[in-house]
Predict the structure.
Amino acid sequence: MRKLYLSLCLIGLSVFAFGQTYLIEDFSGGSMPPQNWTIDNQAAQWSINNASEAGGTAPEGKFTYINGVFTTRLISPQIDLSGLTSVSFQFRHFYDDYSGAGPLAGVATRSGGGAWNTVWEINPTSNVGPELINIEITNADVGEDDFQICFYLDGNLYNIDFWYLDDIWLYQQLNLDASLSQITTSPYLGEPTEVSGVVKNFGMDQITSVEVGWQVDDGPVTYTEFNGLSLDFGDTYDFTCDGMINQPIGSYTLHLWLESVNGGPDQDPSNDMKSMNFNWVSHVVDRIPCFEEFTSSTCGPCATLNTQFVPWCENHADQIRLLKYQMDWPGSGDPYYTAEGGVRKDYYGVNAVPAVYVNGDYIGYVFSGVQPAFDNAILQPGLMSIISSHELNGTEMSITTTILPFADFNAFRVYIVVFENVTTQNVATNGETEFHHVMMKMVPDANGTTVDLMDRMPYTIEETVELSGTNIEEFDDLGVIVFVQNYSSHEVFQSEYSVEEATFAEDATLTSILVDGEPLDGFSPDVFDYTYDVPAGTVEVPMVEAVITDPNGLSLVVPANEIPGITTIDVYGENLAVHNTYTVDFDFGIGVNTNAEKAVRIYPNPTSGNVYVSGVEKGEVTLRNIAGAELGNFTVTNNGTIDLSRFEEGIYFLTVTVENKTVLNKKISLVK
């Protein structure tokens, strides 16, 4: 019956979803004002911000300061609340103060187009938020069929920097309403991992217990009960479920739901379930935090921050990668501002300096946020490795960068940036006498290079850039930083410095392969494919270990999922670009049709698309990628053809089965 409950939850979305919800706005439509909303006064100052300053998810709404005393309102469409006596209202916001005497900020309601009635208001003397606000509205406007709600600013609008809004929700509160508000398990996993999330109480009754279920794809379901809770309205509870996710390499979907609340069904099942796509990666390394600072030599607060931030960066030089963009404000701005820095500023939505970002997340403009952000960043798994070298010939620089991903990443951006370690000639008005890691040139430009990265397939970028005409003071004081970023989410997945005039070894061979601790018979570094017979009935895949020739290289062992099956060993030279794949094909020594195996041929190899199968009167061919994921099944007859042209370049495996017996496993290289 529990599996049936999950199905009912899914069906229930069409019946109950938004049954108690009257207004939702998260600005994802990308327009300001949002559809059917209006703005009263100063419409040009309201915009969409591609960031998450309010604490939600980008994009969000934003008001920008203007000189003058005004009242401006962002007004909802009319909403029919007939028959109601109360509604709940929730939103996220961040009030970025300028002077300590900013305008009033508030929420008001009206009906019939009449006067506005304030239901929430603040009179800030400093920054407020980011915070989540919950309001219960019971005034006379509730119950009308033309109810409206607005956000307003009232006063001298020059005394605020910005007001950010997100996740606006108007709804009717139920007695018992728990929400599965978040899945906190990482979307990239490489070792057995617990399932975690956050439950929130949106109802009037206190929540004392919840039962949570989770499932990967169509696999087994795991349930966990959490008792002894005391969650009042608005309270949250961080939970970790029983059981562990442990999957072969590939892409999956995690389903997480509330099975019961206080021992019974929840009154609103529409917010009881979430799903998340995740990848089981082939390898994990340390993630090196990438710090980006937006600053200026005309900015007093920048100097204040840097008195602490610069020494901190020097003390953590081996643990972080650092880049600074000089901005063109306040006043005349920094002399070393460039248009490329402006592109980067617009990408993040930076509107005041100083502003510090770690792995693409804004951490603030004061030093107190630096250490906590670093502590969190180093806990995140590294899902790719980067190695880079550069050489300067006069004012021309050549840069070679190789990225080795441990999962698939589509439409990511690679940024290669030349910086100067210390500059002094951009001194202006804030008292700083030198500036560190100043961006000089983004290569090829501020938009970076868009790439599709495939699991365990090296990706090399070679660039040559002319640096004359930049702000460089000393050409023997340059560095290069490389970082890979998810352009849509801003997350930086890895960063690294380039090494000047470095030469990296290219040996990507093994000296031996061990199977269950014993050397593989007949091993040779120049032979890449092996067959290993196991006794009939063997279930557990033998453990394979690789002994790499160059200790500065890298080897990754990906075990077979079952027998028969293929364990792969990817070996990379120190430069990460040279790559060999060894395979150990495990099969049963008894029951295999060896005559059929000898007769079957798959050719050509490498192939540009078409693969021919001969020696099979009738059989089935299964295509798998290097991670072991099944990509397709084909029925073939003698001299049959399989078209692989729709697949990406790379290494694949074809398994030929005749009368339910595996007669051949073949590694195929697809080259276009």
Q: What stands out?
A: Residues 300-315 form the longest helix (16 residues).
